[in-house]
User: What shape does this take?
Amino acid sequence: MGAESPKEECGLFGVWAPGDEVARLTYFGLFAQQHRGQESAGIAVSDGTNILVYKDQPDAAKGEALVRFLWWAIHDGQKLAAALDYAPLPAAAVRKVEQTLTKLTVQGKRVLATSK
Assistant: This one.
């Protein structure tokens, strides 16, 4: 393979299991992927209304990427909602998520500055 080829492998999967323990199924799926050569895997769980993540992320790069992605999703990502047939988040929900995201940390240090 040439120098331009991927140097790492990754896996992706999703779980759709209404009424089942989706977080548990996802955990075992990620666990299985890690033991097939992947260095690590992360988990974020959503029920379509809420998203569950650890308040303190142990890996700096992944934790910062997660927080910045979620910040993008509630701001710039909302511009894509109508084109994808989703309803945009109400302003009150965006404020609540913003407040939560400013509390998330990476190895004990806040990722985002506290808002006004």
Remarks:
- The CA atoms of residues 11 and 33 lie 7 Å apart.
